[in-house]
Amino acid sequence: MKKLFILLVFATAAISSCKKVRPELGEPPSQQDAAFVATPSDSNANIIELTANNQNLVCRWDFGNGMKGEGPNVSGIYPYAGTYTITLTVFNKGGSRSSTQQVVIAQTDLTLLDNPFYNKLTGGANGPGYKTWVIDSVLSGHFGVGPDPESPLGATPEWWAAGANEKPGCGLYNDKYVFHLNAFKFDMITNGDVYVHNSLAASFPGSFQNLGDFTAPYADQMDKSWNLVEGPENTITLSNGAFIGFYSGVNTYRILELTDSTMYLQYGHHAGGLNWYLKLKTE
Hints:
The chain is mainly beta. The chain has two helices and 20 strands. Strands 8-11-12-16-17-18-19-20 form an eight-stranded antiparallel barrel. Strands 4-3-6-7 form a four-stranded antiparallel β-sheet, with no helix packed on it. β19 (262-267) and β20 form a beta hairpin. The radius of gyration is 24 Å and the shape is globular.
């Protein structure tokens, strides 16, 4: 009986020692941490200067006009009159917290839309107000892949680059991407199918293998939105469900080059390790 008791004590101690110790995550942000100040700019009442109360947290903004931002101090640009709800979400290791404020823009100011990126993507306020882009399939290197992080060669598809029309009939070359200036609307016209990475095929019912990856049925994604963030790296982010070109599981694209008729994009991979490249042209 004594031996049995000792064994039970030992077994209990062994089980206790195997219990996982959960790391202390800390307290989530408070509502005060998520507070912010919204102030019209001295230069233009349609530009709202936004300042987070806690400057030490990760801050992500939804300006309520289809655009987003990140950082403790940002500016929301509102070309059109109306009432907008601004949302700030702050993050720390313990979680997140959000707060909202409404701002009223009294007058429309279309001069705020005179941005070089806006003009090239959409044709600008003085143009039709939208522009349709397609993959430049006849151009060698219109689609490719390289390492992430980049090698000393820089932003280039050093591992593989498609030759002219190398991926016909896979659902890649007949897609159209329409950038609208009004409300920063985005339309993805798929013509019924898209081309997706093989690791994502299970997320697309009815997909089938085609030229190395998978073609998948996919409906048009209309009335989505696009968001441009200017900085050291200029990026476009599309709202959920919309993407450009070959789908790798992400919807943020770094602009490597943009003219009135051509666009060169780099984007990542849902599992990391890869950078994909796309060259587009206006329709």
